[in-house]
Amino acid sequence: MPIGPARMPLFDHLGELRMRLVRIVVCLLIAVCVFYMATPTLAQFLLHPVAEYMPVDANGNVVLNVFGAFDAFAVRFMISFWASIVACMPVIIWQVLAFFLPALKPNERKWFLPTFAVACVLFIFGTVFCYNIILDPAFQWLTDQASGFAVVMPEAQKWIDIIIKFEIGFGFAFELPLIVFYLTVFEIVPYARLRGLWREVYIGLLVISAFITPDASPVTMVLMFAAMISLYEISMFAARMVLGGKIKKQKEEAARQAAEDAEWEAEWAERQERRKLEKESKE
């Protein structure tokens, strides 16, 4: 793809944005039409990991319940739309990155294709991880809550909706390594500082895990937390390999800054104490 100028007039930026959005929308419209026709197959595929917690028909297919005249269409459209989002994610990521490409410096543009490839792989890996590892224990825990007082009757719209939320949530959550990598490599947040704040980072990841998992299940939250810690450490390792000797300089700078802060705090405390003594002596 041709690389544009580093600076563009406002209307050129708006024209570029419009072109990128049109391409994304066209791709999504085509995908929605295709996936809408294949909705029954997609629904069975989505529900396969949780099939043992649902009733099945004589052919072994999962049985869903639709309680409104509009619900069947809503479910089909929801499945086809989100399937299109996942299928078109490489196109979406490409168009978003390509929009920001002209603003990058020549030495930064070399990261474009690796970023695109890694972002796509991480998103797909997140959805696959959710499909194979998370959905089964999550729905087991959810359906077990009805034990002894209720019968689970799977409503199509709600069950499909929560599965899609799981898949999309995990797909985006697995982009974490890319974010951490660029924050450290471009020294927006120094590697040494981020490594020193590992306790705060882990607590933040725990909170994010609790928000991303839509079922409030401790099992899925723990699995998500473990996955995010692993991804975070992998991204930090990759950043360390790229930064090399810069990390030592960052540590020295961090130590110098900490010493200056400590000296300033001590001086401030001394001034406050001196003022207090002067005030007491006047009284």
UniProtKB/TrEMBL annotation:
For this record, an example GO cellular component is: TAT protein transport complex
UniProt keywords (A-Z) are: Cell membrane, Membrane, Protein transport, Translocation, Transmembrane, Transmembrane helix, Transport
- Report any Pfam family annotated for this entry: TatC
BP terms from Gene Ontology: intracellular protein transmembrane transport; protein transport by the Tat complex
Localization (cell): Cell membrane; Membrane
User: Which GO terms fall under molecular function for this chain's record?
Assistant: proton motive force dependent protein transmembrane transporter activity
For this UniProt entry, what is the primary localization, expressed as one broad class?
membrane
Q: How does it sit in the membrane?
A: Multi-pass membrane protein
Q: Which residues cross the membrane?
A: 21-39, 79-104, 111-134, 162-185, 197-213, 219-243
Q: How does it assemble?
A: The Tat system comprises two distinct complexes: a TatABC complex, containing multiple copies of TatA, TatB and TatC subunits, and a separate TatA complex, containing only TatA subunits. Substrates initially bind to the TatABC complex, which probably triggers association of the separate TatA complex to form the active translocon.
Q: What does this protein do?
A: Part of the twin-arginine translocation (Tat) system that transports large folded proteins containing a characteristic twin-arginine motif in their signal peptide across membranes. Together with TatB, TatC is part of a receptor directly interacting with Tat signal peptides.
Question: NCBIfam families annotated for this entry?
Answer: tatC
Q: Which family does it belong to?
A: Belongs to the TatC family.
Which protein, by its recorded name, is this? Sec-independent protein translocase protein TatC
Protein source organism: Cryptobacterium curtum (strain ATCC 700683 / DSM 15641 / CCUG 43107 / 12-3)
Q: What is the lineage of its organism?
A: Bacteria, Bacillati, Actinomycetota, Coriobacteriia, Eggerthellales
| Gene name of the record | tatC
